[in-house]
Amino acid sequence: MMEKFSEMKYVRPDGEAYIQTIQKETKNFNEAADFEGAHQAFVAILNANSHFNTTRVMASIRNSQDTNDEFYRKEMEYIFEIEPQIDVEMKKFYESYLKSSYRTELEKEFGEVYSRQAENKVRLTDPCNADLQIQENKLVQKYFQVAAAPVTDFHGEQLGFYGLLKMMEDTDRSIRKEAFEKWAELYKSISDELDSLYTELIGIRQQMAKNLGFNGYAEMMYQKMERFEYTPEDVAIFRKQIREHIVPLCQKLYEEQKDRLGIEELKYYDESLTYPDGNAVPEGTEEELLEKARTMYHELSKETGEFFDFMMEYRLFDLEGRQGKQQGGYCDFMEEYKAPFIFANFNGTNADVNVLTHEAGHAFEAYTASRNIPVLSQTFSTAEISEIHSMAMEYFTLPWMHLFFGENAEKQKKAYLWDSLEAMPYMACVDEFQHRVYAENLTDAMERRKVWHELEKIYLPWRDYDGNEFLGQGGFWMQKQHLFMCPFYYIDYAVSRVGALEYYGKMQEDLESAWKDYYALCRQGGSKGYHELLRIGNLSDPFKEGTIYNVLKKLNLI
């Protein structure tokens, strides 16, 4: 019987018992006299994985809810310690599975993707990296603590990064500038720690790649992220399309914004203010916003209504921003319950609705796929598909913005579209930055800032930090948590945005048909390969030269 998330009892996963189960079932699998015996051992392994993953996710969520909670910090440390040992035992099972005479029959039920993933796990798992994995995980956990800690006094309020970002949307330019300076000062105050952490992470990650025989860390991460069907060269072509088509479009949009605001020069602290009389802000408390979302999802489709009722019944949310809470937003998934969880940091801006609909896209896909596919570890697809689920949901929900923004709904819709386009060059900038960091082994802090500064001029030519020395010299890169916690992920938001924009174009022509394609994509989770999922979702290949141009053209944006 499932309970509300806050009432779920957490019990530390027994790592040793889990390892013994893997060993036992691997032996049973190897000695199976028939397919039925092999199938039984295979399913037992899947179930053991699901139990461990569910417990791990529960601990991770509670750790992110309060990074200062000593109990869950220790639980994550224990999990980080045991995971490399589990990986080594699972590698033995994967090796047995891959050479098994029952593999073809198992693929008929569980899909060929499992075999591809098993081959990849064998390639990536080696005991020589176990201690390095533990060190990496601990450094990432340390990053979350460091980044969640800073606060400053602002007009009598104690504000952290999210609170200051809200103030950078104030209609009073002097307040925006003051908030920006405080925000930059907070990052500068922890920059030495962040630089040191990142340098350590680079060294550890480079060594792991070397230990496994890769030419570099980027090559290893493309394998780890299961980017089986495209290469760094394909991503470079994609970034080129952004430079050629999205950057000029964004320059035009920012010029229009400058004129709307009635200012001579657009500074960084002006970028977030879309309208001179203020951005649209959601109306209502957190609970009221959730009820409005329930109404929206019931009207959008039968499937989304059922999904959101489930989320509300079991309170699978933590949305309010607070001191000590991990930054950012995410959706995670508890396999045994087939239950997604949405994490956010509401700060009273339109970003609250954007992040709710974004993470609800992930959650809807997880809820849907987990009830349709046989391997729960494949509930989420690879990142460049998963982010289509989330970003397309943002577009599908635009007709209901009046529920959240009242008479300012049209302002919000326009601002959302502009913001979604303006974010793409930054995503490409982050991606090229980290490719260079690892290719050039940039362990020197000032050298990294120099590279970031160079790339900003290419991807963000409108960016003006108004004389702030720290950011003007390239310090802005360190505010992107993905560089610390999940390297090479961030470009997936841009890749997926192309698919989401393609759905948006289809919505204008035939909403029912667009939803049918999107729902078909969600149902498959990660059980199919990248290009097959694009075909199922009726989407174009974003890495093909000309795709971005064609998508923008259809939307009359160029």
Automatic annotation (TrEMBL):
Cofactor (UniProt): Zn(2+)
Keyword Lipoprotein in record: no
Record-linked CDD domains: M3B_PepF (cd09606)
Every Peptidase M3A/M3B catalytic domain range: 167-542
Cofactor mode of binding and number, as noted: Binds 1 zinc ion.
Keyword presence, Metal-binding: yes
UniProt-listed GO biological process terms: peptide metabolic process; proteolysis
The name this protein goes by in its record: M3 family oligoendopeptidase
Taxonomic source organism: Coprococcus comes
Biological classification of the source: Bacteria, Bacillati, Bacillota, Clostridia, Lachnospirales
